[in-house]
Amino acid sequence: MNHIVTVQDAVTAFADFMEPTDAELDAIEQEMPVILADVELLDAQIVTLDRTPTELDARRIRRARRRALATRVALINRTHESMPGGAA
Description:
Helix content is 70%, strand content 0%. The protein has helices at 5-12, 22-47, 55-82. Helix 2 (22-47) packs antiparallel against helix 3.
């Protein structure tokens, strides 16, 4: 008889003890603006995949890229402000 071990691994991979911790959920929540800005940038880029971008498309991509960069900077600044000791 052949035992299929991968089936057991797939079933136990979603056990209750594998849920994200509160700290992990908080980290995801803090990064959510960056994730949403990246999704917006990808949406703007996907629209132009099968055609030549118009001026409006190019503007939308530039605006989405700036927003994504700004949200990353804001997240980094918040992270450094909340760190004890700070940089000397």
